Amino acid sequence: MTSRDSLVDLLARCALRDRRAFEALYQQSAPVLHGLLLKLTRDRELAADILQEGFVRIWQRAADYRPHLGQPLTWMGAIVRRLAIDRLRRGDYRHRAELSDDGWALVADHGPGPEERVHAEHGDAALARCLETLEPEPRRAVALAYYEGLTHELIARRLERPLGTIKAWVRRSLQRLKTCLGEA
Q1: Torsion angle defined by CA atoms of residues 100, 105, 109 and 112, in that order, rounded to the nearest 10 degrees
Q2: CB 144 within 8 A of CB 150
Q3: Chain centroid to CA 14
Q4: Across all residues in the chain, what is the average pLDDT?
Q5: Is the distance from CB of 3 to CB of 28 less than 8 angstroms?
Q6: pLDDT at 51 exceeding the cut of 90
Q7: Whole-angstrom distance, CA of residue 84 vs CA of residue 91
Q8: DSSP annotation of 96
Q9: Is the dihedral of CA 122, 123, 126, 127 positive or negative?
């Protein structure tokens, strides 16, 4: 059984309230999801809190997962990503201590990021292929929105483009990705 099939099976069993399946799901997916949250929050405690909240939500919504619509880790990643963005936007987290450059160097993970690990581990070649069909600037806007959690306003500032342009790029790009992935 592949890792993807294993996660699909575990999510299906979680939908039936199988606690052992939930424990196995946590063991298999928590490291990657925690890495994603660390990248988004840059705060270990906040990432751990959101991961716990995310797994509660995954447990509650396991029956909503549809294997034909996407990878299980992508679905779970979207749940924890949304929670992180909501928490960061609300600003209801404690202020983290600032680290010196040497401190960041000690905690930095110089290996592939969570997204790269997800893509590598789960053969998300179809998504990579579909992303390549997008023009470079709209592709960058989508990456900033979904991998870095930036709002449309922040993307517009970073790319020095009008807000309406960014919104149109992201909306059209997501439509093209959905169509492309549906054909894959």
Answers
A1: 110
A2: yes
A3: 20
A4: 81
A5: yes
A6: yes
A7: 10
A8: P
A9: positive
CA 75 – CA 95 distance, rounded (Å): 29
Q: Is the pLDDT of residue 40 over 70?
A: yes
- For residues 147 and 114, give the distance between their C-alpha atoms in angstroms, rounded to a whole number: 9
Percent of the chain whose predicted confidence (pLDDT) is above 70:
78
* Cβ atoms 116, 75 nearer than 8 A: no
With 50 as the cut, is the pLDDT of residue 147 above it? yes
CA distance 92 to 101: 26
- How high is the pLDDT of residue 123? 44
Could you tell me the domains of the chain?
1-92+115-123 (1.10.1740.10), 124-184 (1.10.10.10)
Is residue 25 pLDDT above 80, yes or no? yes
